[in-house]
Design brief:
Blueprint lengths: L22 H28 L1 E4 L5 E4 L10 H8 L28 H13 L5 H10 L16 H4 L4 H23 L3 H9 L22 H18 L8 H21 L6 H17 L10 H22 L6 H26 L5 H5 L3 H8 L7 H18 L5 H27 L6 H10 L23 H8 L3 H15 L10 H5 L22
Antiparallel strand pairs: 1-2
This protein binds zinc ion.
Length: 533
């Protein structure tokens, strides 16, 4: 995927949530953003309708109609650009109270209808209460959709699902908080930490260096790593439950497993109807079982209510209990009854008040439809953009004098990009044997070399093999000449071994050395490196 830097968007300072005085400032910010996007989309307007001739790879020139077909961003960026509230879905009109239900059969957003509605209300010259209510129910903000007015663009389809933001930095992060609460409730934190620290190394898997609770900041890569081992570690931590724990442990494991399985399948590069059905089943099971963690999603308001309830119950109880006989056994029995009642009431309150209605919980329900429409999910990922930051923005910032750096970053990147394009064009002309000045040809030969051949990964020997007792046999097994092996061994010995332990530099002796002597040689295992970013 090619990423080009077009513009740096202005980032206004954060405003407090409910400050009415800042309403004007918010409107100014939104208008500025729309203005910037109008500038960016300006060149697309005519070409979308009339087309533009483009050189194709087969040498022909075709009339093409470039249109905006996707926008890769995290949820908050999408909410700002689509002009919707932060708890609204950019694709469908799901009400906030149903975000956590897993239902995805809500009406798709019709941004053209909102636009019409907005215009009709504007002509009335004041925003009526009715209009405000409608905007509130639909979760939209008036006049803030930057994609408004683009021809041949389906705005709800611009939103692309993103594993990094929705799953790794979204659901997994929430789930880890719930799991920590769950482990604490059942006194299994230590078992979890022990299993976490005892994870063995494996190709493509990074062994965590710290105990889970010692990690203060999680990045996408670490969360992906966590997704690979979470279920195993949790299953170890929840071993040997007592009678009262069997049901909750089973349910918690099913819930975590469904999310892990869903994530693994969402990473597939190709799908069939069957794999998509699997994904939908996992989502369904996840929603069915997630209530086991509900008590760990208690908001501050609910916690305050629960505390108030407990105080009230205790107050009532002291009034009643004053008249109860002072026999120790009976008092103890009453105390136990009271505690149970207190717990039941707390759980009833939490179940009634807590919920999982947050937007990332809902977004996963669109994954299946997206695959049917646009193909696999890893194809669209904010990771590509994040990676491009380094070369396109951070390097430019370092080169700038830090004074109004935005323009310097853009011009630094623009120059580099232009030079690269120019060099490619000249190289194309040189290959076509065009008449170029001698110094240009010389420069091209110096800078542009032919693409190097892909590295060849040799087969690796793993463990002991009866047919490879001596160094000379390694060459036979791996099809490497004995001279090369001797040369490399001597080089290794001279560079890396201390004086007293160096190998004898005689080919015959080297060839007859037993292979066990060389097991400490460290060789990079390139073939197992991760292929994705
Ligand atoms: Zn939706």
């Amino acid at each position: 995927m090619a990423v080009l830097l077009l513009a740096l968007l202005p980032l206004p300072p954060k405003l407090p949530k409910s400050s009415a005085a800042d309403k004007l400032q918010r409107q100014i910010n939104a208008n500025t953003l729309r203005g910037v996007f109008e500038l960016i989309f300006e060149p697309l307007k005519d070409t979308t309708l009339e087309g533009v001739p483009i050189d194709c790879a087969d040498g022909k020139i075709r009339r093409c109609f470039p249109i905006l077909s996707g926008w890769i961003a995290d949820h908050m960026e999408n909410a700002t650009l689509h002009g919707i509230k932060s708890n609204a879905c950019p694709k469908c009109e799901v009400p906030p109270e149903e975000l956590g239900t897993g239902a995805n059969r809500h009406r798709a957003r019709d941004y053209a209808r909102y636009e019409r509605y907005e215009r009709e209300n504007l002509s009335l010259d004041s925003e009526s209460d009715d209009a405000c209510d409608t905007y509130e129910t639909l979760g939209i903000k008036t006049g803030q959709n930057v994609f408004q007015g683009l021809e041949r663009v389906s705005t709800p389809d611009l939103h692309m699902p993103d594993l990094l933001d929705t799953i790794y930095l979204g659901l997994f992060k929430h789930m880890m908080d719930w799991i920590q609460g769950f482990l604490k409730k059942h006194s299994r934190q230590q078992a979890f930490n022990d299993a976490w620290k005892a994870l063995p190394p494996y190709p493509g898997f990074f062994v965590p260096k710290k105990a889970y609770r010692e990690v203060t900041q999680w990045q996408g890569k670490e969360m992906r790593n966590l997704g690979r081992c979470l279920l195993g570690v949790l299953a170890v931590a929840l071993r040997q439950p007592d009678n009262s724990q069997i049901h909750p442990f089973k349910r918690a494991l099913t819930c975590v497993r469904s999310l892990c399985d869903f994530t693994m399948m969402a990473q597939y590069r190709s799908h069939t109807a069957e794999t998509i059905q699997y994904m939908e089943d996992y989502t369904e099971r996840f929603h069915e079982t997630k209530d086991i963690f509900l008590e760990f999603r208690v908001s501050k308001r609910t916690q305050a209510k629960a505390d108030e309830l407990r105080r009230e119950l205790r107050r009532q109880r002291t009034l009643v209990n004053q008249s109860v006989a002072k026999l120790t056994r009976k008092r103890r029995w009453i105390q136990e009854q009271d505690r149970e009642q207190e717990n039941d009431q707390r759980m009833d309150l939490i179940n009634a008040e807590s919920h999982c209605n947050f937007v990332k919980m809902h977004l996963i329900s669109h994954f299946g439809d997206h695959i049917y429409q646009f193909g696999n999910i890893p194809m669209f990922s904010t990771e590509y953009g994040e990676l491009a930051h380094k070369e396109q923005i951070k390097d430019g910032y370092r080169r700038s004098n830090k004074n109004n750096p935005a323009r310097q970053i853009l011009s630094s990147y623009g120059l580099q990009h232009a030079i690269r394009m120019r060099l490619l064009k000249l190289e194309f002309l040189r290959r076509a044997r065009a008449d170029l000045p001698a110094e240009v040809v010389e420069h091209l030969e110096e800078t542009l070399t032919a693409p190097s051949a892909p590295p060849v990964y040799r087969r690796m020997l793993k463990g002991h093999r009866d047919d490879v007792p001596e160094v000379a046999d390694i060459g036979r097994a791996l099809k490497v000449s004995p001279e090369t092996i001797c040369r490399e061994l001597i080089r290794y010995s001279r560079l890396s071994l201390p004086l007293g332990r160096r190998l004898l530099e005689h080919p015959a002796i080297l060839r007859s050395l037993p292979v066990e002597l060389l097991t400490q040689l460290k060789i990079a295992v390139l073939a197992f490196q991760e292929v994705d970013v």
